[in-house]
Design a protein that fits this description.
By secondary structure, the protein is mostly beta strands. Helices cover about 15% and strands about 35% of the residues. A hairpin with a 4-residue loop joins strand 23 and strand 24.
């Protein structure tokens, strides 16, 4: 059985006719999971990576999950072809090329896959552009698409950037739309099926318009708990670029709540007009008169030799209303009462009400004006695909290795594309449930190199070949504390079946 991750859209049927004979795969054996299924979602993902001066791209670290395989777990194994060998020609190489070159020209098809890991931080793997009907397909390791750490569906904010270098996106950003992997990897995390094919939207770059942060405001919620729940939902939404979210109080001045209502009320000062509206009339001669439900007032008696001066100063621009004096802003009401023995007592009264208190989520949504730059395969080409090939053939491996060897030596920075060359050999690694792997002698360190393309019959002059594997792990097999082996799943007819579920699906533009 096979299972597929699909991001957005509805998966179409298999290719009506293949270039070569291959095993069929039933459509109902390819379930789907969403990456970015709408244009708006894809725009927000692209804006997330372009925004804030590309800080998330520049700050991303190599993805090192499940990359190191203990040497004793890598041994000779035996992948076997499950049908006849087959190849899918690369884009532009549908006709056989006989050109040869002694130099190794790096493929434009290689790049970095960026996403948010289960730790909430930005990470990257290696990926490569692959032949497909709509020139919109990327191949990488399965655990660079599927979240094997938290067992969530897929890694969020998934994009492919061919030729990425220190914040530069020479051919734009390609947002993942639909991702496909094998059922056995999805369900059992079977290392023999640790590969993925992802359809991507047309590439985008920022237009001349500036990047800006758009204000966001949710609807009011009756309780703070409801608003916090919505905030958490927005923050976790893999299709958005939300940032700087917070819960804010919203006072509903149209609804007065009874005095003492807990948590959902807000005490606010009101004017004399509002007091009249709420209370209709209250005998203010009675200093200790109880307030009407939902409203109240406080009364202050001024005493001492300066009481009259303080009282007058507290009521600037007063207007005489019967026996009351009202301040010009209507916030304070003053009145006097006769004092026994002569003179007057001076009083100031202010008013308040318990309004209904709601909550809303506010903040900023990162927005970037984007421009379409076309399809991935049109811009950088696409490698072909080879499966059921004889083990022992020479391949080139292209990737972005980073991190250190077990002895602490940092041989690769992960900033530039590197290559290795050698003949494949049969391997197995029980630690990752893999009995049918292929290996190659390589000094690549695992971090960042995961997803590296294994290209068979690579023509340096044309920078094209046939994808025959993707790096899923590295190992130190001779015990000298230096990685010396990279391993990949063996591409067979079932690999072609997963590829077939993706190769004819259209993605389209996001702007």
């Amino acid at each position: 059985m096979k299972r597929t991750f699909v991001v957005g859209g509805i998966s179409a049927g298999l290719l009506a006719s293949a270039l070569v004979s291959s095993p069929a795969q039933a459509a109902d054996e390819v379930p789907s999971v969403i990456l970015a299924n709408t244009n708006l979602a894809a725009q927000q993902v692209a804006a997330f990576w372009y925004g804030e001066g590309k800080a998330n791209l520049i700050g991303a670290t190599p993805y090192d999950v499940e990359t190191k395989i203990v040497a004793k777990h890598v041994s000779t194994g035996g992948p076997a072809a499950d049908s006849k060998p087959g190849v899918i020609p690369a884009i532009g190489d549908e006709k056989k090329s006989t050109s040869k070159s002694k130099n190794v020209n790096l493929p434009k098809t290689s790049g970095k896959v960026f996403f948010i890991g289960s730790d909430g931080s930005p990470h990257w793997c290696t990926g490569t552009s692959l032949q497909s009907q709509y020139r919109n397909l990327v191949a990488t390791a399965g655990h660079c698409v599927y979240d094997t750490e938290s067992n969530a569906a897929t890694l969020s904010k998934w994009v492919f950037i061919p030729g990425y270098y220190q914040g530069k996106t020479p051919w734009g950003i390609y947002v993942g739309k639909q991702g496909f992997t094998h059922y056995d990897f999805d369900v059992y995390e079977d290392g023999d099926r640790d590969y993925a094919f992802v359809t991507v939207y047309n590439g985008v770059v920022p237009s001349a318009s500036p990047v800006f942060d758009k204000d966001y405001e949710s609807k009011p919620y009756k309780t703070k708990a409801e608003a916090e729940k919505e905030k958490a939902k927005l923050a976790a939404d893999k299709t958005t670029g939300w940032s700087w979210l917070k819960v804010e109080e919203v006072v509903d001045y149209h609804q007065v709540k009874p005095v003492g209502t807990p948590e959902t009320t807000k005490v606010e000062g009101i004017t004399w007009d509002a007091w009249h509206e709420f209370n209709k009339y209250t005998d203010t001669d009675e200093i200790n008169n109880p307030s009407a439900p939902g409203t109240g007032y406080t009364t202050q008696e001024l005493t001492g030799p300066t009481a009259q001066t303080q009282w007058r100063n507290a009521l600037p621009g007063t207007n005489f209303e019967g026996q009351f004096y009202l301040s010009s802003d209507k916030k304070k009401l003053g009145y006097t009462l006769p004092k026994q023995g002569g003179g007057y007592r001076y009083f100031l009264r202010s008013f308040w009400a318990n309004y209904d208190l709601d909550y809303k989520v506010v903040g900023k949504v990162l927005t970037v004006a984007l421009k379409d730059v076309g399809r991935l395969g049109d811009n950088v080409g696409g490698q072909g695909l080879a499966y059921n090939q004889k083990v022992g053939k020479p391949v080139f491996v292209f990737g972005y290795p980073s991190g250190s060897h077990p002895d602490g030596n940092y041989a690769f920075s992960g900033k530039t594309l590197k290559w290795a060359y050698g003949k494949t050999f049969a391997a197995s690694a029980s630690a990752i449930k893999a009995e049918e792997l292929i290996g190659i002698k390589s000094s690549f360190t695992g971090e960042g190199a995961i997803g590296s393309s294994w290209l068979l019959n690579y023509k340096s002059a044309r920078r094209l070949g046939y994808l025959n594997g993707v790096t899923i792990g590295v190992s130190d097999t001779d015990g000298n504390n230096r990685y010396d082996t990279s391993v990949s799943p063996y591409f067979d007819g079932e690999t072609y079946g997963v590829y077939s579920a993706a190769k004819n699906l259209w993605s389209g533009k996001i702007v």
